[in-house]
Amino acid sequence: MINKKAIFSDETKDYKTPYEPKSGDTVTIKIRALKNDIIQAYAYINGKKTALKRTKTEGEFDFFEASFICGDKKVEYYFELLDEDDKIYYNRLGCLKKIEKEYNFSFTPNFTIPDWAKGAIYYQIFTDRFCNGDKTNDVEDNEYFYTGGHSVQVKNWEKVPDELDVRCFYGGDLQGVRKKLSYLKDLGVEVIYFNPLFVSPSNHKYDTQDYEYIDPHLAIIKNDLEHKMEEWEHHNGYAPKYIKRVTDKENLEKSNEFFAQLVKEIHGLGMKVVIDGVFNHCGSFNKWLDREGIYLSKKGYEKGAFQCVKSPYRSYFKFKNPDIVDSEYEGWWNYITLPKLNYEESEELEQSVLRVGAKWVSAPYCADGWRLDVAADLGHSEKYNHEFWKKFRRSVRDANPQAFIMSEHYGSPKSWLEGDEWDSVMNYDAFMEPVTWFLTGVDKHSKSFSSERFLNGELFFESMAKNMAKFPRPSLDSALNQLSNHDHSRFLTRTNGTVGTIKTMGAEAAKKNIDKAVFALGVLLQMTWPGSPGIYYGDEAGQVGWTDPDNRRTYPWGKEDKRLILLHKKLTELRGKTDCLKMGSVKALTYGDGYISYARFNKNDCVIVVINRNKTDEKFILPVWEAGVKNGAVLSNCFDSSAPEFNCEEQVKVKNGRVTVEVKAKSGKAFYCKL
């Protein structure tokens, strides 16, 4: 029988070269097997059977390979291995008796992703809640009317968000980010990902008012017009108030200048910037629609589509009665405050958004990429959706060849990751979900509990393998692996294993029975798994919170959990200095009830990770030979989540291809070895 534990291949540089092939390149694919275990080996490349040659023997393994010249079409392949009485197939799922085509290895020639985006450490900032660096730009009480109420200036930074939080502003701004850049750099951050920054009446800004400008409330208010308010009569009879601050061109231009300077400073510290784009829908305040009449009679602005049937923006929206002023229009999920953009019927809209996409990654702003909100929803058909994102990619990459395009997406992203649309996605299915189920038992919203998935090491690896197999390798290496973000409960709260929301459980319950030992296991997984780890602001400092909007509590400046910050620093440092953790292979070693172990490795080095989620100390025998670690090698402990400073002087020696390690309850270790 073929030793299946020895067989390994993937699409890292060690098993497929070039890593990102171009048309006309000679591509070499490789697979590993136990020495003298395989009689014949084949690769099926786009259905064509090709014999593999044994090219070398190294340690316990024989290596087989084949080369071919690729054209410009997508390439799919899998392997077939035989001995005297056994035959197995091998693809992204590993060893199979029957091939499952959807999980075959594949790549699209000429699909390249910027190197900086592969395995980078992100820090996500919800700007209003991160740090208030300039009180002169704060939103004031009653400054404007929106979704049934007036804006509120929250004066207590530590106040828990209201259940209806959208109109509450804590004053966090880009000047606050600027003041904390050294903190972020010291934390090990390589990319800052901002939630939306463009003009908007909400604190979350996923209802864009003006895509051309950074919101002055996050940047600069030079012309305050003596805080004089103007009123516009609404067609329903009430008079919403909206200060001139965000329509005054001086404020808008100064805010854009400030953002450009901030990005320059961030780049000067060696970090990148990704901004959030909401192009499926906008806000009813948007100057293109102007439902509230904010821009009526404003110098330099055209009439909005809601106010005038001859507006140049009329085709940007789908009206029930196109020839009638203030007609009903299509809203995303039927929300009138979120008008859906009508791309198919407006070439002008399409061109406007493509210009926006290019503008912000170009000088003087020079953002390094986009995160795209609800990107799969854009347009009114799947066909148009794909057409648009192809155009968007061309527009953005023409403006900045090193720009990265990442989308919010749930479910399989395969059809968008063919090399001409998105680069990658926020990694829910192949990271956040399996991790939170295994470690906490609750889903990412804290709204359900699964006894089947909780502590199930086998199901963890099975789920990871199937979902990771839906990514081209460069997209997997650049997928954003988060434990928390603005749409889901904070991971530290999830460690209490409690199903609930702020409405059902109350704010205090978000920190009740939390388990920082389990939290540390999540961070260990995050920093040692393929992809780009993404820290949600405040997670590293011990912030808690139920799902939206409670997950948007402020960063606890002055009350940070210093040990959790140290935890992140230790792991970002380990990731930064260990080559295999960014771009290396991953292989499950052993797993069971409440524990998992895996290896990250390449031809140069190896990291062995073992996680014990159980409530008792455990001893594990780890088959490190599967990662290429040789007998007699010494593995050094490079991280121990149970140690006071996360340091440990422990060393273990490989005997018979294995090491024996002891791991305390609810703790994890990582061991390093040079290969």
Descriptive notes:
This protein is of the alpha/beta class and 675 residues long. It contains 13 helices and 32 strands. The chain has an 8-stranded parallel β-sheet with strand order 22-21-20-19-16-11-24-23. A hairpin with a 2-residue loop joins strand 8 and strand 9 (94-96). Helix 4 (347-359) packs parallel to helix 5 (382-399). It is globular and about 85 Å long.
- Taken as a percent bin, the fraction of beta residues is 15-25%
The number of helical segments is 13
Shape: globular
Q: Trace the largest sheet across and list its strands.
A: 22-21-20-19-16-11-24-23
Average residue-wise pLDDT: 95
Helix content class: 10-25%
- Return Rg in Å: 27 Å
As residue ranges, the low-confidence spans are 226-241
Specify the oligomeric state: single chain
| Largest sheet properties | 8 strands, parallel
Quick one: how many beta strands? 32
The assigned structural class equals alpha/beta
What is the CA-CA span between the terminal residues?
Answer: 28 Å
Q: Helices, strands, pairings?
A:
Elements: E1 16-17, E2 26-34, E3 40-45, E4 48-51, E5 53-58, E6 61-69, E7 75-82, E8 87-91, E9 94-96, E10 105-107, E11 122-125, E12 145-146, E13 149-150, E14 152-153, E15 168-169, H1 174-179, H2 181-187, E16 191-194, E17 198-199, E18 210-214, H3 249-268, E19 272-277, H4 347-359, E20 369-372, H5 382-399, E21 404-407, E22 424-425, H6 428-440, H7 457-468, H8 473-477, E23 480-482, H9 491-494, H10 502-505, H11 516-528, E24 532-536, H12 562-577, H13 579-583, E25 585-592, E26 595-601, E27 605-612, E28 618-622, E29 634-640, E30 651-653, E31 659-663, E32 667-674
Parallel strand pairs: 11-16, 11-24, 14-15, 16-19, 19-20, 20-21, 21-22, 23-24
Antiparallel strand pairs: 1-2, 2-6, 3-4, 3-7, 5-6, 7-8, 7-10, 8-9, 12-13, 17-18, 25-26, 26-27, 27-32, 28-31, 29-30, 29-32
Helix pairs in contact: 4-5, 6-7, 6-11, 11-12
